[in-house]
Amino acid sequence: MTVTNVQDDDARNVFAVLVLPKGSTSVTAPKGCTKGITVFCKLGTMSPGTSRTVSISAVPTISGWGQATAGVRMTTPDGYFTNNAVGNSIWINP
């Protein structure tokens, strides 16, 4: 997932957050990330207009529709918080 600071100010204490689909196990995540059904990756401070990409691999353990949700958490006030998360449904066939 890619996190972009579209604000006019620095975003401080930024974390990328990924909730894996039910029945998945986290396989790989970059250094600085906690692994589990919810993966938190510390991105630190992001200047306006900057982007950071985090790649996470997961292995599904059950078949069916799965929902993965990605989002961002930070300590900086955000006037447009509605663009801080996105979900995607995918068909899983392990």
What brief labels describe this structure?
Immunoglobulin-like, 0% helix, elongated, 9 strands, 94 residues
What does this structure look like?
This protein has 94 residues and is mainly β. It has a single domain (2-78, 85-92), classed as Immunoglobulins (Immunoglobulin-like, Sandwich), CATH 2.60.40.10. It has strands spanning 2-4, 11-19, 24-28, 33-34, 38-46, 51-53, 57-60, 64-73, 85-92. It has a five-stranded antiparallel β-sheet, with no helix packed on it. A two-stranded antiparallel sheet has the order 1-6. The chain has a two-stranded antiparallel sheet with strand order 3-7. A hairpin with a 3-residue loop joins strand 4 (33-34) and strand 5. It starts with a strand and ends with a strand. The relative contact order is 0.34. The model has no long low-confidence stretch (mean pLDDT 86).
Mean model confidence by pLDDT: 86
Global geometry = elongated
How many individual domains?
1
CATH class: Mainly Beta
Rg of Cα set: 14 Å
Q: Point out poorly predicted stretches.
A: none
CATH level-two architecture = Sandwich
Coarse structural class: mainly beta
Order of helices and strands: EEEEEEEEE
Query: What oligomeric assembly is this protein in?
Result: single chain
Main sheet record: 5 strands, antiparallel
Q: Would you count the extended β strands for me?
A: 9
What is the tally of helical segments?
Answer: 0
Q: Helix content range of the residues, please?
A: under 10%
Spatial ordering of strands, largest sheet: 4-5-2-8-9
Q: In whole angstroms, how far apart are the ends?
A: 22 Å
CATH topology: Immunoglobulin-like
What is the CATH H-level superfamily?
A: Immunoglobulins
Strand percentage lies at: over 45%
